[in-house]
Amino acid sequence: EVQLVESGGGLIQPGGSLRLSCAASGFTVSSNYMSWVRQAPGKGLEWVSVIYSGGSTYYADSVKGRFTISRDNSKNTLYLQMNSLRAEDTAVYYCARVEGSYLYYFDYWGQGTLVTVSS
Amino acid sequence: SYVLTQPPSVSVAPGQTARITCGGNNIGSKSVHWYQQKPGQAPVLVVYDDSDRPSGIPERFSGSNSGNTATLTISRVEAGDEADYYCQVWDSSSDHPGVFGGGTKLTVL
Asked: Each residue of A3-13: pLDDT tens digit?
């Protein structure tokens, strides 16, 4: 059974850093495309980042240069390092597996972890 | 970057048909996917590749895509279908390929 479990969210001051983790089971993270998607309170879904199986990474303009997506193959875990956090980064962050053959949809999602950026 | 436009809200009576649109430039040339999200829950894929349904999704959910508009159709709407619905495409030619529509709140009257 495929499972994604996020952790690492919490309250952080503006300008601070936080690292989110997404532990996967039932499949191999490194063999799949993996993404982070976020949702600000009362708002819609916003795609944040993707890491392809080959290691290429891409980011939304809103986080480029501040966030870094990575993975640990030995732990089968996806990460999102978030630096220089802003109030507008406050959101529930979901990790999701991307069906990456050619359709590119999000077939499995974690339960989400809340990040609150506030002083 | 590619933009997807959805109506903020759609209302329908139980038993009727709901249609939620997703507009984009020549969206008919792309594969469109749809997600249902209920309050406090993660999104769930309900339609992929314009019109296919994952296992476990009722046949009442269907999709179409042509020209500049993709449509999610929910037949015989039930109270449990009340949720937010999002369309999504993958713009492989872009440096930020993941694209979601703004979402549509489906209200069952």
From this structure: 999 999 999 99
